[in-house]
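Throughout our pipeline, every protein is held as a single compact record rather than as scattered files. The remainder of this section carries one protein's record, kept here as part of the documentation.

===
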Amino acid sequence: MIKDIIILGSTGSIGQSTLNVIAKDKSKFRIKLLTTNRNIKKIYNQAINFNVKKVVINDKKKFKSFVDIFKKKKIKVFFTLDDALKNNKKKVYFTVSAISGLNGLYPTIKIIKHTKNLGLANKESIICGWKFLEKELKKHNTKFIPLDSEHFSIWNLLKNENKKNIKKIYLTASGGPFLNKKLNDIKNIKPKYALKHPNWVMGKKISIDSATMMNKIFEVIEAKKIFNLSIDKFEILIHPKSYIHAIVHFKTGLTKFLAHDTTMEIPIANSLHETNNIFLHNEDEFLYSKLNGINFINPKLNNFPLLKILKSNFNNTYYEIILVSINDALVRLYLNNNINYITIHNLMLKLLKKPYFTKYYNTCPRNLNDIKNMVKKVDQYLELYLVK
């Protein structure tokens, strides 16, 4: 049976990885809809190559400029996801939501009622809006599969396991490009060096987050919410090879881990084929040498001071939204050479203690507009604060 697929954010790295997986077995999948913000050339080629008849271009100027070009190929172009889904009566088999940042939250919530399975690889959406996502998933009986390699690994390791037996879950981090560097020695390091991740090919924002360990902090917060466990059940281990993605230690004395190569295509492929009895992703042999000298390391606060953030409470309040928004702003400033590397760490920890923000830490957003308004408040405050 052919399975209908929607990809939100098809021109980004996760979207492209999804298309690479589908390209290996086009006979099993049919792509119903692709979306992008402004990468017209890429989504046009994707639509042609995969015979996609509906696309969303969520940039008004680009939408108006290129709609006729798509029409010549009998491809319907929509400006909003709402318009594209208006006459959608049947649930598709699987949706991959790969829109980066908080911009991905609304379309992800919107798509839930239109899909049987949701594969999500958007940290910000889970961290800031999990309670809204979870509500919609339950309401529409949509199955959720986390696509980040760490969370996908935990999800697999916990299948048929009683969560009461979990003693500790370890998420692995590569340590980034500065693993063996002291923070003071790299306080003025240029962004081009911070972007050189040793194992993964990623976007600029996530590469900087990997260097500072913020990416892994976000993943722990995500895991807490997705698996409904207390934050003290999780720990970060540095694993420079990035071959083992998660480890679960049980009270029974057993420890399980999941390993795969450093490509997002593997969790994506296994998610898309989750109901199949068998499928072939590639013909590679198991390279046991990758497990020789695994070399796990405890991250040190001196090198990664942002780990202090994990001592906070994460109870779906404004704290998580403020955390994500401040980090977004600081990474942008660093990438634009407006602040140095060490300032990302120092300012993050300092700003989180500001009374302007702390007064919101016991209050929960009631809806998506509350989240949007808080993001604006953070941006406005930082604009004024960083000018001083």
The chain has a mean pLDDT of 93. The longest strand covers residues 29-36.
